[in-house]
Amino acid sequence: MNVPENLRYTSDHEWILIEDSVGTVGITEFAQDQLGDVVFLELPHIGKTVDRGEAFGVIESVKAVYDLFAPASGEVVGRNEAILDAPEKVNQSPYDEGWLIRIRLADMTEVDGLMDAAAYRAAIAED
Amino acid sequence: MTVAPGIGHGTPALRRLALHERHVRLGARFAAFAGWEMPIQYEGIIAEHEAVRMAAGVFDVSHLGRCWIEGPGAGEQLRSITTYNVLRMKPGTAHYSLYCNEEGGIDDDVFVYRLADGRWLVVHNAANAEADFARVAGAAGSTAIERTAETVMLAVQGPKALDALGRVLGPDIATFAEHQCGEIAWRGGAVLLARTGYTGEDGAECVATPEVAGALLDELIAAGVAPVGLGARDTLRLEAALPLHGHDIDATTNPFEAGLGWAVSLNDEAPFTGREALARLKAEPLTRKLGHLAATERAVLRAGYPVTAPGGGEALAILTSGAFGPTVRKGIGMAYFPPDLCVPGTALAVEIRGKPVPVEVVPRPFYKRSNLGA
Lengths: 127, 374
Fold this sequence. Notes:
The complex is a heterodimer. Chain A has four helices and nine strands, in the order βββαβββββααβα. Chain A is α+β, with helices and mostly antiparallel strands. The longest helix of chain A is centred in the C-terminal third of the chain and has 10 residues, at 117-126. The two termini of chain A are 13 Å apart. Chain B is an alpha+beta fold. In chain B, the strands form four sheets. Chain B has a six-stranded mixed β-sheet with strand order 11-12-13-10-4-14, sandwiched between helices. Chain B has a six-stranded antiparallel barrel with strand order 15-18-17-16-19-20. In chain B, helix 2 (45-54) crosses helix 7. Chain B is globular.
């Protein structure tokens, strides 16, 4: 299972890539595999503020509906329009083309509470 | 035979398919369904769905109840419990029918196979198999024999399904007309093959012993047929607008409002369970009808979502089934609503997470194969 070293992870199986003060958010390879085929996404509009741990959107697979939880607080400064019409990209490329939103982080210290790749790998090994 | 639930346990153990180990090797993910540990998916629901639409897929549907009736009065006994006049069926054919209750509600929908004079097979939904067997045994006594555990049922579906079956079982199957059934000698045993299915595609369903069916599954996979789980079976049957018992039809819905009046024969004067109620219901105007809805923007419809007027508001109906149809590429669903709204083109909404999402009433089915009869 691919768990890139340069990302931080949540227990809800989301990843965040920190570049300067902006975090790009997506779901992990493990999450897309568990979900199965993604057929619908509901993502927040640019300018919306999200709080860490808050449901910011919805992801639906053929099987079920799941909330997406913000790994960190901040303002939404980007969302992946391409996946709204092609949600299968989340399955095909969860760490790249299948990214979900970008957040301008309100508090960089929140990221310290997230798992690194080794910790996340250990977490999914238990699941 | 039936397995009594919960022997020695508070919760009944799941029943395992005879070919379980093969499904494990094929990469299946399993989940509980109607008391069985069933393959839900292998490669992925959409890939499996597309394999059936574009080529061929094989489903292990051995969880379905299989009950034989063997005796000179079998046809009449079956007629006394089922809505379709099965006595009209020619030997070597299969037909859809219903078990109704005295109020005309649908206790189960079934497939009846007239194998020969005095030899019949009925296939029941897994969740109802025990009650259905009791119903058949009530009419046919000891000539009713359940062989669900001793046999395997494989559905082979898709535009290339008969091709693949022909390569494995021999060219005889090319002579099978739609809904025809018969036995084919194979590998020292026999395969009971019927040109039926539940996907909206051409294909056949095969019943055999686990040994013969295991070899058949292996050879079909080797011939390029994709293993398909219950996940895709649901999206395939929904696109074909085939009702699922327990969802779109149940003991509180009648065949006429469900669009299944064609499976109710009233003109032969034969008594059968529910006949009086069904005759009365047929004469009355429908108070509701099973309608078909398609989302006009990208959305996933799901069972339990309310159907409302276009802008929202109070629920006019509740979706009995729903999905994102992988072939039709839109949200689709079914619900019972007033007949005057059940007109293709009518604009409605489905409430998803508190918001009305526009849908329209569409003709049945959502998907129709283009190579009918090919």
